[in-house]
Amino acid sequence: MPAPYPFGETVVRLRRGPSPGRDPRGQPLPGILEETPIGGCVVTPRAETPPVGGAEQQGRDTVIVGWTVYAPPGTDWLTTDQARVRGVVCEITGEPGDWGRSPFTGLSGPIQFAADRVTG
pTM for this one? Predict the structure, then answer.
């Protein structure tokens, strides 16, 4: 399927495979990390405005907290995935949203999700 956004960029989906077993303490071992490049994504900065009068607002008005990613229709994204956006590993915050089909054009819309930078 060709990318719907010809000038979009590639975002890498990071997904863990099934656990291969358990460690000596009985905890599940992490599965193999599968990296899948998804081309044709639109990436926009996502800002958060601190509450008026709060201590955070004294030095700045808005803070960039991550990106909003619009991935091609039909791509598979889960809340448990991570995304590498512009070289930065991000958590997917909330449920990825499927825009569905446009009642005006009949075309499928993008899959939208919030990608927050992993810290710590």
Answer: 0.79
Region of residue 77 (left: phi > 0; alpha: psi -120 to 50; beta: else): beta
Mean pLDDT of 93-104: 90
- pLDDT category, 49, cuts 50, 70, 90? low
Domains of the chain in sequence order? 9-117 (2.40.10)
Asked if 66 contacts 90 with a C-beta cutoff of 8 angstroms, the reply is yes
**DSSP-assigned letters across all residues of the chain:** ---SSTT-EEEEEEEE-----B-TTSPBPPPPEEEEEEEEEEEEEEEEPPPTTSGGGGT-S-EEEEEEEEEPTT----TT-EEEETTEEEEEEEEEEE--B-TTT--B--EEEEEEE---
Nearest CA among 94, 76, 65 for reference residue 13: 76
